[in-house]
């Protein structure tokens, strides 16, 4: 499965925020509700868009639509892995995405891939859907950056939701 092109940055920005909301605590063991995650995600997406220019400016509008497909999704970051980053003929970064379904029924995954430079600075964000992964099976796809990237490019999973 291919990356979502320009629409991927939007879902990724919201997903990035959702991971931040889920991963940040105030010392308590409170797990944010989906509504709290969505509110925090919208705020962070807007902040990211303001810092990231036009490429991320559309992120907040698309983010809600992209993650709607993962309604009720569970954190599956530990079930997703990425391959090495390569630059294709168009100068876009690509990486393979593997999702391992540990559930007893077929599930889909929404995976946010963050492309960063060697210093960890965010260069681009893509949301990849890996659909209909068989029970106890694996699904694969390729995440491709929305634009040309230069220099050392790394990739990491920002968030992964199994739904």
Q: Overview of this structure, please?
A:
The protein is elongated. Strands 1-8-5-6 form a 4-stranded antiparallel sheet. Strands 2, 3, 4 and 7 form a 4-stranded antiparallel sheet that branches. The model is unreliable at 1-29 and 31-51 (pLDDT under 50). It is built from 4 helices and 8 strands; from the N terminus they run ααααββββββββ. It has one domain. The chain is 31% helix and 36% strand. The chain has 163 residues and is α+β, with helices and mostly antiparallel strands. Strand 3 and strand 4 form a beta hairpin. The protein has helices at 6-23, 34-52, 54-57, 59-68; strands at 74-75, 80-82, 86-87, 92-100, 107-116, 122-133, 138-148, 154-162.
Q: TL;DR?
A:
This is Lipoprotein. This protein has 163 residues and is of the alpha+beta class.
Strand content: 35-45%
Average residue-wise pLDDT: 73
Shape: elongated
- Structure summary, number of beta strands: 8
- Order of strands across the main sheet: 1-8-5-6
Rg estimate, integer Å: 15 Å
Flag low-confidence runs.
1-29, 31-51
List the helices and strands in order: HHHHEEEEEEEE
Organism: Streptomyces griseofuscus
Protein name: Lipoprotein
Tags for this entry?
163 residues, alpha+beta, four-stranded antiparallel sheet, 8 strands, elongated, disordered N terminus
Produce the secondary structure layout.
Blueprint: H1 6-23, H2 34-52, H3 54-57, H4 59-68, E1 74-75, E2 80-82, E3 86-87, E4 92-100, E5 107-116, E6 122-133, E7 138-148, E8 154-162
Antiparallel strand pairs: 1-8, 2-4, 3-4, 4-7, 5-6, 5-8
